[in-house]
Design a protein that fits this description.
Layout lengths: L7 H4 L7 E4 L3 H10 L3 E8 L2 E6 L10 E6 L2 E6 L16 H4 L3 E10 L2 E7 L7 E6 L1 H14 L7 H9 L1 E5 L10 H4 L13 E6 L6 E6 L2 H7 L4 E3 L2 H15 L10 H7 L5 H6 L7 H5 L6 E7 L5 E8 L9 E2 L2 E2 L4 H20 L9 H4 L7 H10 L7
The structure holds iron/sulfur cluster (SF4) (2 copies).
One iron/sulfur cluster (SF4) binds next to helix 11.
């Protein structure tokens, strides 16, 4: 049942109309989502990083924190204001919830001469509302939608989680040194075509701490109608625009022109030896990547042999076992594995799924322990030279 509506004006807030929500009203957004049966998940500080976890109140959000990122470097720092979304993306992405790292596909027990399947994969306890989804992350969700829901092999686990999810986007008004979404066409502005139910922009200017908000769906408009909002003024729209423009001013970029052909023609490029000499094949880049989706399946049984389980776990093309087939692994060298990953991300992904597999979030740059930078690797392939670095 809908709660009492607090504003005649906001009762009529249609999709795409921009309104102002006071920062103090954000708690009511969380309450409204909880009343509608959602588990609210959002950013919070843990172990020196901004991670995603269940949010029970605004106090759980990283107020006054920002992040400093560089190749192989991530630090949280204090801001001199109380911004709730004054940072970029952390090590986790929403695939943590939509395409979890570990899922028990089924368990079974021996019964006489046969066995009985006890249960299938666990669904989330309640539909989830993701608070603080960035533009590049919406693009990553759209990529995983295509791969896991819209391709010929549909993943019912992803489908069940994704279909219930309510997405609250927050436009970036600053970017990290590792971000390059602007060059990938995925951010920092949240386009009207994305699947966001609500789109917020945090404003901290002279008019105070507040959010510019618009609904991106009917259910988003329903939630918005439960909140106390006021009409956005030109100055609010201008402040939001300036913030997003500032975030688009990024020091890293990938030149995507003919990138598929570039990668396909670079199979024998000497740069692969150069990057292989640095790559530890640790798989961090694939774990943090919001679009990587590869998994392995593992069967286990207890010592009695009466109980067995089948688990699905994230896997990575950076492990030697990933390409194991009868007779051994196909990609035994780090050169072959890095080349496979980057060629898939930027080239064969386009042939398979109709878009790039990279949304420019920069996580693989930040969380690579040796600071390998995909934008620099593309530049080196384009520049050529004996070692691909001239
Ligand atoms: S590129 Fe970096 S993060 Fe990825 S496997 Fe190599 S060393 Fe690890
Ligand atoms: S390849 Fe790197 S920058 Fe691109 S989406 Fe994955 S983690 Fe982000």
């Amino acid at each position: 049942m809908l709660a009492t509506r607090e504003s005649d004006w906001s009762e009529a807030v249609p999709q795409q109309v921009q309104a102002i929500l006071a920062a103090s009203e954000l708690a009511k957004l969380i309450d409204a989502l909880v009343r509608k049966g959602y588990e609210v998940v959002g950013p919070t500080v843990r172990d020196g990083a901004i991670v995603y976890d269940q949010i029970e109140s605004v106090q759980d959000l990283p107020a006054g924190w920002t992040d400093e990122q560089a190749p192989g470097h991530y630090r949280l720092k204090r801001r001199d204001d109380a911004a709730l979304f004054g940072y970029v993306v952390g090590p986790q992405s929403w695939k943590k919830y939509l395409h979890p790292a570990e899922v028990r596909l089924w368990s079974a027990e021996r019964q006489g001469g046969t066995f009985r399947i006890l249960n299938n994969e666990a669904k989330p306890r309640a539909p989830q509302a993701f608070l603080g989804v960035r533009a590049c992350e919406l693009a990553a969700i759209a990529v995983q939608d295509r791969v896991l829901m819209e391709d010929q092999h549909r993943d019912p686990i992803y489908g069940a989680r994704r279909s219930g999810a309510f997405l609250i986007a927050v436009q970036c008004t600053q970017s990290a040194a590792t971000c390059f979404c602007a060059s990938m066409g995925t951010g920092p502005a949240v386009s009207e075509e994305t699947a966001a139910d609500l789109v917020l922009t945090e404003l901290l200017g002279p008019a105070g701490h507040r959010f510019l908000v618009r609904a991106g769906s009917e259910r988003g408009a329903e939630v918005l109608a439960e909140l106390k909002t006021s009409p956005a003024k030109d100055a609010d729209l201008h402040e939001a625009d300036e913030g997003v423009k500032a975030a688009a001013n990024q020091s890293r970029a990938i030149d995507t022109h003919d990138i598929k052909e570039l990668l396909y023609q670079s199979f024998e490029h000497p740069r692969w030896d150069n990057v292989a000499a640095r790559c530890l094949t640790c798989a961090n880049c694939t774990m943090v990547c919001p679009t990587c989706f590869c998994t392995n399946v593992e069967d286990t049984s207890d010592v009695t042999g009466d109980h067995a389980e089948r688990w699905r776990r994230w896997d990575s093309c950076f492990t030697e076992s990933f390409s194991y087939i009868h007779g051994g692994s196909v990609r035994t060298s780090s050169k072959a594995r890095y080349r496979q990953w980057m060629t898939h991300k930027l080239a064969s992904w386009i042939d398979q799924f109709g878009s790039s597999g990279c949304v420019g979030c920069g996580r693989c740059i930040t969380w690579c322990p040796v600071g390998i930078d995909i934008t620099e690797e593309v530049r080196a392939l384009r520049q050529g030279g004996t070692h691909g670095d001239s």
